UniProtKB/TrEMBL annotation:
Name of the protein: Adenylosuccinate synthetase
GO biological process, one term: IMP metabolic process
Subunit structure of this chain's protein: Homodimer.
Domain of life, source organism: Archaea
Keyword hit for Cytoplasm: yes
Organism: Methanotorris igneus (strain DSM 5666 / JCM 11834 / Kol 5)
Reaction equations catalysed: IMP + L-aspartate + GTP = N(6)-(1,2-dicarboxyethyl)-AMP + GDP + phosphate + 2 H(+)
Residues holding IMP: 13-16, 40-43, 127, 141, 179, 194, 256
Main location class: cytoplasm
Residue sites binding GTP per the record: 12-18, 42-44, 258, 284-286, 324-326
Keyword tags: Cytoplasm, GTP-binding, Ligase, Magnesium, Metal-binding, Nucleotide-binding, Purine biosynthesis
Record gene name: purA
Length: 339
């Protein structure tokens, strides 16, 4: 039994939602706990042809046997969260969700501050969800906590206790990180970053476990990195070129057009080091090479795709164990038993 952390390896939008949902379905962990900043990160999960844009609930929700948790380090917007619980009613999320009573709460004043601050909204490209201002209030010790919100009472619990008890009992635990490493307040492309660290170490702290409890760290890379908003992007390609390749994407939270680039092998190496990566999950291989769409066996991939994967492994020193070849959960190559 293992404790696994899932981390974004670029500027977010790497397809972590698909990877987390696949692992939840395949490995059926006892609990999946969400770390990260808050509702400024969006994950898209496709189940039976239907897409779900998720900002608060852990993306392992399709597996009804799994407990869902939001760690104390995560900011919660009650309005966003309760809408998601209602939207995911057929997945019995209400019965399975645990919100740590120490989670910080985003209020309307935080959203207004986020949107009205010209530096944040225009220069930095904030999502406007109130996370930055809420984290300021948290540092000032004036932020409300989940335990103060009546509408959240039915979900409250101690996520650290839940997760540590599960690990001690030898059960599978999964920690879902949000955003991407290169958006880290400490290690990202500052100042064009989010309002806290977004590496595996912080995700462990967000849900209340120590580093010795972590067995695996899976860093998720997209075959072509994308970025929403401003900030450095060393391998960015012109939008016209991205359109020719059929790569036109929009952010789950903001709806803004994503900038597109070529895979950055040197940055991937740095990201794997920062997170202590033990595995790599590679998404959107079908867009890197259309001939790979829907393939579920590694040996059936094209030479072009295999060369690309091997180049990533050589550059990072980390095995590529999970490969996504399409949006559906079954469109996945899983090499964990082979390597």
């Amino acid at each position: 039994m293992t404790c696994t952390i899932i981390v974004g390896g670029q500027w977010g939008d790497e397809g972590k939602g698909k990877i987390v949902s696949y692992l939840c379905e395949k490995d059926s962990p006892y609990i999946i706990a969400r770390g990260g900043v808050g509702p400024n990160a969006g994950h898209t999960v496709e189940v039976d042809g239907e897409k779900y844009g998720i900002r608060m609930v852990p993306t392992g929700f399709p597996n009804k046997k799994v407990k869902l948790a939001i760690g104390a380090g995560v900011l919660v917007d009650p309005e966003v969260l309760l809408k998601e619980v209602e939207m995911l009613e057929k997945f019995d999320v209400r019965k399975r969700l645990i919100i740590d009573y120490r989670c910080g709460i985003i209020e309307e004043k935080h959203r207004l501050m986020d949107k009205s601050n010209e530096h944040l909204s225009k220069e930095i490209g904030s999502t406007g969800t109130g996370c930055g201002p809420a984290n300021v209030d948290r540092a000032l010790r004036i932020l409300k906590q989940a335990k103060d919100i009546e509408a959240l009472k039915e979900f409250l619990g101690d996520v650290s206790e839940e997760v540590n008890d599960a690990i001690d009992a030898g059960k599978n635990v999964m920690i879902e990180g949000t955003q991407g490493t290169l958006l880290s307040l400490y290690y990202g492309t500052y100042p064009y970053v989010t309002s806290k660290d977004t590496t595996a170490s912080t995700f462990a702290a967000d849900v209340g476990i120590g580093p010795t409890k972590v067995d695996e760290v899976i860093v998720v890379f997209k075959s072509f990195p994308t970025r929403v908003g401003c900030g450095p992007f060393p391998t960015e390609m012109p939008l016209e070129e991205a359109e020719k390749l059929g790569i036109v994407e929009y952010g789950t939270v903001t709806g803004r057009r994503r900038r597109v680039g070529y895979f950055d092998f040197e940055l991937a190496k740095k990201v794997c080091r920062l997170n202590g990566a033990t595995q790599i999950a590679l998404t959107c291989l079908d867009k890197y090479d259309n001939a790979c769409y829907g393939i579920t066996e590694y040996g059936e991939l094209t030479d072009k795709a295999i060369e690309f994967i091997e180049k990533i492994e050589k550059a990072t020193g980390v095995p590529v164990t999970i490969i996504s070849t399409g949006p559906e959960l079954h469109q996945t190559i899983d090499r964990r038993d082979e390597l």
